[in-house]
Amino acid sequence: MSITVEGPIEVPPGLRNVVVTETRLGDVRGDEGFYHYRQYSAIELSRAKTVEDVWFLMYEGRLPTAAELATFSDTIAPLRVLPAEVQAALPAIAAAGSAFNPLAGLRTALSLLAAARELPPVWDADPVRRKADAMLVCAVTPTILAALYRLREGLEPLEPRADLSTAANWLYLVTGQEPTEAKARAIEHYLISTIDHGFNASTFTARVIASTGADVVSAVAGAIGAFSGPLHGGAPDRALASLDEIGTPDRIDDWVRAKVSAGDRIMGFGHAVYRTEDPRSLMLRDIARGLGGDLVDFATTVEQRIVEVLAELKPGRNLYANVEFYAGVVMSLCDLPRAMFTPTFATSRVIGWTANILEQSEDPKIIRPSARYVGPPPPVAVPIDRT
């Protein structure tokens, strides 16, 4: 897409509804409650395919054949193993700070990986090398995050297993137990559904950095920084914490009204794009019901009543449960600790980030918007003395 303009263009705050480029990777149709990866419904892919299938699709533009999937999976498996330099640094990274910050640790470890493997700027790399670097970053991200968690808990990190899928490996690396097929598949549904989602803040950040010609890890590290904000990827554990605060069904109304009265955001509800129910939330609610249990029953009761009360207090806003609400429920049912909810999201979204980085690296133009200056009018003479 090429548009020539004379002078600055006024755009809405947050660049809302501003089209900044063209992409072949997918789109979000907020009014329809629909989003897609390439030419396929993301939800249908989540229900029918594996993470490896969709990873291949995002990179190659088509679903793999059985032979291609086997080759792709065999290529990924050894990439999950961390270089010795990164393994040696993980204990210090995990111990840093008074509180566990897995995304900060991931940024640090990936930066070391880039140095150890001498990842070149995408500007200097050919498409084959760019893709290889992207696959490496995606493959090691779960290994790093799980190792940091286990080290912080006083446990030994585990080696990834070549016989397990991406989803099953994640649960194994974090919990130390090989997951049941039902739990591995439940997490796989979630991982696929969160691989990509339009030009969200972290994806746009990754593309801005990639447009400078920087290496893949630099772009991913920037995306992680954007993603770490509670208004972006940091809500699954907060949504589950809301269920803890509510406690019992009879407290739902008072809790919601108090939150709205105080001007607080209700985590897990509302979305910047969707004006209908979030299709990811609908799918995850079905997955949660399939797993069953008291937590699921309580969550569905809370969801229904919160939507009703919000419709009363904020008429016309169309506020429904978003992906974070049931994501926390599903991850909890699959034995993941709350500290690893947002990192779980990161293990899938890194595939979308790198797909966007690869696409952006095909464009030689740097992303360089302008800002409108609103400070004191210049020029003001610089004072010479200090009296």
UniProtKB/TrEMBL annotation:
Swiss-Prot/TrEMBL catalytic activity: oxaloacetate + acetyl-CoA + H2O = citrate + CoA + H(+)
Entry-linked Pfam families: Citrate_synt (PF00285)
Family: Belongs to the citrate synthase family.
Organism: Kribbella koreensis
Top-level taxon of origin: Bacteria
Pathway the protein contributes to: Carbohydrate metabolism; tricarboxylic acid cycle
The keyword Transit peptide is annotated on this UniProt entry: no
InterPro entries assigned: Citrate_synth-like_lrg_a-sub, Citrate_synth-like_sm_a-sub, Citrate_synthase, Citrate_synthase_AS, Citrate_synthase_bac-typ, Citrate_synthase_sf
Protein name: Citrate synthase
Xref: SUPFAM superfamilies: Citrate synthase
Keywords: Transferase
